[in-house]
Amino acid sequence: MIKPVAARLRHLLQEDPSRSRCSLLITGHSAGGAIAALLYSHMLSSSRGADSDLRALAGFFKRIHCITFGSPPISLLPLQKPQTPELRKSLFLSFINEGDPVSRASIAYVQSLLNLYLTPPPMGASSQSRSAQKPMPKSILKNSKAASSSTLAVNDYRPPLPSRSKSAPEGASPRWKVPNATLSNGGKLILLRAVPRKMDYKSTQSGRGDVIQARLVSDEQLRSVIFGEMVAHSMSTYLKRINILATNAITMR
User: Is the CB of residue 72 less than 8 Å from the CB of residue 39?
Assistant: First the structure.
């Protein structure tokens, strides 16, 4: 992957040397986002072991940015932009839709998610019929401490526990054991979420439907949630939400 990308960039520079005054943006969605993050980190690496044709081209561009959408975790430690003065204006952003399972993808996580899909939703103590079952929330936090501090806890849903759970307090949320994550997401993590307009009275976004919010989150916060909404992974959903946020930023809404 490194050699063909380097060859393509070298060809573009030879074709028009004025392109060296431009910034280079490396981007991708899903697995493409993971590759983009790896190429970006390699290109800006200061390690001698990372010498390559691609890294040698880093100085031929004004700035180098990386923006990914719905990319999976790829490294043991979170990939971050090098903290050097010359890279202070370089961007390394990772956009994640709330509910996108690919942003948490690992073998253990996928197995846990499949088990969750196969688990019947909790029923109230007084409810005996299937029609009385309520859907589980999109985001299930691992413990109450995370629920109070994490910006991912947006659901006020509090279904009653099954009648056989006598020791559980009334009104407590269901719990699902989240498997330990070994890999981390790279870049500055920005969570995109859709909040019902009636729940966001301060919003000045125009139009109808949900209000789109962008929130900075940490890799540690992502490790404590279950995301399982495949629709949230589509690039069309990312594009729609980014367009709304960009339009509102330009119009000061």
Answer: no
